[in-house]
Amino acid sequence: VDADGNAAVVQYYGTDTEITVPDKMGEATVTTIGGGGGNIALGSWSGNSTITKVTIPATVTKINTAAFWNMSALTTVNIPANVTEIGTHAFGKTKLAAAELPETLKSIGEQAFTETKITEITIPSGVTVLPKMLFAKCSELKKITIKGDVETIDEKAFQKCPALTDITFEGKNVPALTDNAKAHMEEVFQENVNLTIHVPTGKKADYEAAFGDALKVAKDGTEATIPVVETEAPVDPTKTSGDWKYIVEEDGTATIVQYIGTAAEITVPEKIDDVTVAAIGSGGGNIALGSWSENKTITKVTLPATVTKINTAAFWNMTALTTVNIPANVTEIGDYAFGKTALAAAELPEKLTKLGVQAFTEAKIAEITIPAGVTALPNMLFAKCPNLKTVTVKGDVATIDEKAFQKCPALTDIYFEGKTVPQLTDNAKAKMEEVFQEDVNLTIHVPAGKKADVEAAFGDALKVTKDGTETTIPVVEMEEPVEVLLGDINNDGDVTADDALLALQHAAKIATLEGEKFTRGDINEDGEITADDALDMLKVAAKIPLE
Predict the structure, then answer these.
(1) pLDDT per residue over 126-166, tens digit each?
(2) Within 10 A of 399 (CB to CB), how many other CB atoms are there?
């Protein structure tokens, strides 16, 4: 833990093959991965041959030297959107198959991706130096796109990448080779005989002069000069209209990617430049700032009925945001969509089929109903929601992932109404104590006859502790709902003239119907009992269809 109260995770001692790094260690926020001296599995430069996947929290801003070095089974690691620095050897000698580098990234260390299995990569515009052996010996690397103005390229940066066919430089500056690279010209692109270098229009001669003999390569007796070709500058798909930035998708709809105004309450238009708005958020950061930084001013967002998708992190960390409507046509809410907001209520539409990781984590909602189309409750879905009291799950949820309901101190009731008994994912089973962690006031309600099945499925996840208090979350069966026959005021199983008479007496204030009798008597469900209800009862009794 540093002087600012932030934590660096320096070592993992467990035995899981898929690990999730917590966003906090005690009260300290995790901002760094790796101690700088070796991989997180062993704390040394030795290999780990079992870990296949690591999930890093959004709080992380730095991946240290050798954090994952030589972890030979590792295929998947996310790089959070706030990361600014990736250290030397960070992912080297792993089986990492893909790496999406965030726009915030400023620095990449030597051999950061050497001998990995990535096939293509885009280097964001903030990176200005390509260090020694950055992509050396990446056997499956085919394509590299360099977005910004790289100043220098060091020795062996692209050495021995047999599948490499394209490097595209999009910046205005022409990179220079370092002195070390110039001293070993033949090793900068060594053996890359299938490579073409793409540069902006008018820069071909400048690049050829800067790279010089480094463009001369040979492999297995085959000699070649790497061609440098000019390409038209890529067109930025982002358009601006008023206070909005948006992208027109292939299907002709618009995705709002950023709000650039200053209002505290904003209304998203249903059309922008005559294009229908169907999605909110770029998937890389909140709509206020286009990044994972906080916005502390926007309190309310009104979305149009045309929206069908709320993308990853659309409203993430917008700390003043209390109100957002979720339109009836929305089918997907992405990872982190409403996480770390002050959202006080959320009405999820019936068409919703997917909720993302941490979609509502740390939000201020008090109750929520999950519609029948949602079949998975993902990692940390409602984790640390301080005001959440009641969750109703309408449909047949197949899986519940780790920490889904973790640390919800006000949570008293979860209702599972589906026929299928939810199962815990392997990750949740590996950390049983975290599924309902600290939810000591919780009761789980299940359909009649399902108590034993749910207790067996949840197992030790039902054992919770907080402040020294240990308890087992009770699982109770709900009574089967009683079907109400509207019009049958006297509850004899039929709608007859007798029921119509009772309705007329109520309408004439001769008698008063209350409670369940009132509910049965309001056959047209308009909130009152009148002669119209009595007439409808007579029609039902006479088997005349109601309009």
Answers:
(1) 999 999 999 999 999 999 999 999 999 999 999 999 999 99
(2) 16
